[in-house]
Amino acid sequence: MVDQLPLLNGSSIPAIGLGLYKVPPAEAARVIDDGLAAGYRLIDGAAMYDNEAEMGAAVRASGMRDALQVVTKFWGDPEQSYDAVLRDFAASEARMGLDVVDGYMIHWPRAPRDTYVETWRAFQALRDEGRVRWIAVANFGADELQRLFDETGEWPVINQVESHPWLPQHDLRAFHAKHGIVTQAWSPLGRGRLLDHPVLVAIADEVGATPAQVVLRWHLQLGGAAAPKSMHASRLAENIAPIAPLPDEAMERIAALESGERTGTAPEDRP
């Protein structure tokens, strides 16, 4: 059973979700079916991933809709505005064919445009209309989160950010924890680049797990969530399989890997 993390709106999410980034549309249904069989109950999609239609069809065909949380994201390019949110969400609704979307995220703040607050107000409207159950963001910094709250009176329930042992984001995690925001990691395994690191391989051998399981357990012990992606049924099952908590000494060795290295785009580089 996957741990559940409480959200500010009184609901909760599974700590480990199934990421669909770079899953080709033709493979999405199979990957989702394999993920559901392995025990995933949160599916992390986005308009930009170009597989919303396949995600929705797989969820409808599964017969498990009530047990699942389906998430998608507003891309915000070429336009990020109140009206653009309403248009894009209507298109996402049509593609997915679901009565309600569980979670909707602003994919990037695109801070130079200075429109993320009005974008957030559109998210609030969609939630208040009952078309979305909870609203969240991705790739926001602490200052941007604070501004959302100051100007709208509401924190996002989740901030999904790049995070892995090279880039743990401790300061941002602390800000989230102070305000009840869940930290959800994208690229939680460093896009696979971390998995042959000697420190992680050694810890995995010591605890009888795989390096991927060690890194995901590290995320859980930091109090956050993660949405790893794989197109292989065996790795999907591996990623969600529980392992015992890592000893403090192992957590300290992983902490020493912090370098600030990113494997994806930095928020300030996404205009």
UniProtKB/TrEMBL annotation:
<dbReference type="InterPro" id="IPR036812">
    <property type="entry name" value="NAD(P)_OxRdtase_dom_sf"/>
</dbReference>
<dbReference type="InterPro" id="IPR020471">
    <property type="entry name" value="AKR"/>
</dbReference>
<dbReference type="InterPro" id="IPR023210">
    <property type="entry name" value="NADP_OxRdtase_dom"/>
</dbReference>
<dbReference type="Pfam" id="PF00248">
    <property type="entry name" value="Aldo_ket_red"/>
</dbReference>
<keyword id="KW-0560">Oxidoreductase</keyword>
<protein>
    <submittedName>
        <fullName>Aldo/keto reductase</fullName>
    </submittedName>
</protein>
<comment type="similarity">
    <text>Belongs to the aldo/keto reductase family.</text>
</comment>
<keyword id="KW-0521">NADP</keyword>
<feature type="domain" description="NADP-dependent oxidoreductase">
    <location>
        <begin position="19"/>
        <end position="257"/>
    </location>
</feature>
<dbReference type="InterPro" id="IPR018170">
    <property type="entry name" value="Aldo/ket_reductase_CS"/>
</dbReference>
